[in-house]
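We now fix the convention by which a protein and its fold are recorded. The integers have meaning only within a learned vocabulary of local backbone shapes. A complete example follows; check for yourself that the lines match position by position.
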Amino acid sequence: MIPALGTVRKWIRRTVLSVGCCVAVLLAVTAYGWWIDPRIIVIPLRQVAYMRLDVASRLITVDGYAWPYLDAGPADGPVLLLLHGFGASKDAMMELSAPFAKHGWHTIAPDLPGFGAHPYHEGEHHDGAFYARSVDSFMTAMGIKHATMVGSSMGAAIACELAIEFPQRVDGLIMLAPAGVQAPIVNDFMRRVADGANPLDIASAEDFDRVMNLVFVRPPAVPAPFRRWFADMAIARRPQTLLIVEAIKPFLSDGLRGRMGAVGAPTFVVYGTADAVTDPSMLSVFASEMPQGRTALIPGAGHVVFGDDFAGTVRAMREFLEWAGLERGSVALHR
């Protein structure tokens, strides 16, 4: 009995030692990812988020450039193409795509040129016309003949530019806090831009916090590794980002004014009442130039309206799609 007891004790000691070593390694990796290289934590957790939302991360080459994009929903469903805002990426549209994918839409959210994992297009002037052409080329490469467009901020202005220059591409147009026109009420953000500043510039983790507080009324909690990863990515591509700022600033400031009458697709323009970037007073400009469209204000929401009131924004979008005859995947009314 005693030898057997000794064997058991040795087995217990070895097991405890092995578990302890595994825990120590795990803690060391976590600490390294937390303080040294946040990619070790961020990239696996991002994959978990993709799996949770049933979103696939894919890549397609268009005109020699890799376009990363997120793909969800049935492949034969009507296409909902989501365009992110300035300084963001496809991941910013991930949560928004999920409820529509579950209701039969084929949702696609690409990284636009110069943002996310999409490289800057050397030699190109990254203005509104360039981005509209780029999205048109992406749609061709993807085999997408037409889609309902959803854009946030800069992405909304680009979606509108696409509807003006490539009307056959757009079944419906949903613009969330769009840029592209002068605001009747000039806010502090706009005054700073007019003075030559870039309030969305990120050169440190502290800048990341400042921008989050600017675009959200209720900023989401972002763990330290994610904050550092976002800041590191922004700093790495900052030289190209500053070039994009100068190229696209005229378009985002007033590039759509006087041209939106060419949009034939059913249109929905949404702002948050607490938007400190694109002022909600801009809603009247879009309404006056696109009288066939619909508008909505999301009470208490900031610039990222679906971030501050996700349920309210999705509900308003689905009501518009139903009104426009698009919710059930029918062809657009203007065709």
